[in-house]
Design brief:
The chain has 228 residues and is mainly alpha-helical. It folds into two domains: 72 residues, Helix-hairpin-Helix base-excision DNA repair enzymes (C-terminal) (Endonuclease Iii, domain 2); 141 residues, Hypothetical protein, domain 2 (Endonuclease III, domain 1, Orthogonal Bundle), CATH 1.10.340.30. The chain contains 15 helices and no strands. The chain is globular.
Length: 228
């Protein structure tokens, strides 16, 4: 881990935010916010889409751009039809073609969450740990499940546009483990007794950067870090 710390030691929370602002996902969500007709359903739309962003058939960049472009064009989206429109989008997506039936069921579960979410948007942004807990309970998943944590991350990206303010991720929300993080872990972890989640928790504390903000740093610098 020491070698990875040396490579990342120039980072701090400010550089993490700067890299997040240049993340293709953040840019896609900003474009959507600027073009969507009904901004009141923007946050829920982004969070719900994140919950079905897994096992993609295309690249992540292409999928989030596709999502942004699609809902920038939809003119009559509202709380009444938002789940249906999301389902229609997924069914016709070029980059999200796998496990369609399962993803339809996940979106159906969100019907009962919609009203509560719409009334607590700013509350959830101020305390994203509670949003994580409520989503995990609703979806019957672990608190550190990748899709749950990723949904909180995308909600935060969207909330920065919606509320025009920045709220930092709490340290208690873990980093969503994906193939890139697994690769970096294998390269830089010399003690096999240290599990991957413990590895990134330690790295987060050493850098004084919350795990979800660390995620963007690893993502943006992945190709360079992979060279060891």
């Amino acid at each position: 881990m020491q070698k990875l710390l040396e490579k990342l030691k120039w980072n701090n929370i400010n550089s993490a935010i700067e890299q997040e602002n240049n993340d293709f996902q953040f840019k896609s969500l900003k474009k959507l916010y600027e073009n969507i007709e009904n901004r009141e359903i923007y946050l829920f739309l982004v969070m719900a889409n994140a919950l079905v962003t897994y096992q993609l058939s295309g690249k992540w960049e292409a999928y989030w751009e596709e999502f942004s472009n699609y809902f920038s064009r939809i003119k009559k989206i509202s709380e009444d039809n938002i789940i249906k429109e999301l389902q229609n989008f997924i069914k016709n997506s070029k980059n999200n073609r796998r496990l369609i039936d399962v993803k339809m069921q996940r979106l159906e579960k969100l019907h009962k969450f919609l009203d509560m979410f719409q009334n607590k948007k700013e509350f959830y942004y101020e305390d994203m740990e509670i949003l994580r807990d409520d989503l995990a309970l609703l979806m019957n998943q672990a608190l550190d499940a990748k899709t749950i944590v990723f949904a909180v991350k995308m909600f935060s990206y969207a909330a920065r546009n919606y509320f025009s303010k920045l709220v930092l991720f709490p340290y208690e929300i873990e980093i969503p483990i994906d193939s890139r993080l697994e690769t970096i872990y294998e390269i830089y972890n010399s003690d096999k007794n240290i599990k991957i989640k413990e590895f990134y928790k330690t790295l987060s504390k050493q850098l004084n950067i919350p795990p979800l903000h660390l995620d963007a740093i690893i993502w943006c610098n992945y190709e360079e870090l992979k060279k060891n």
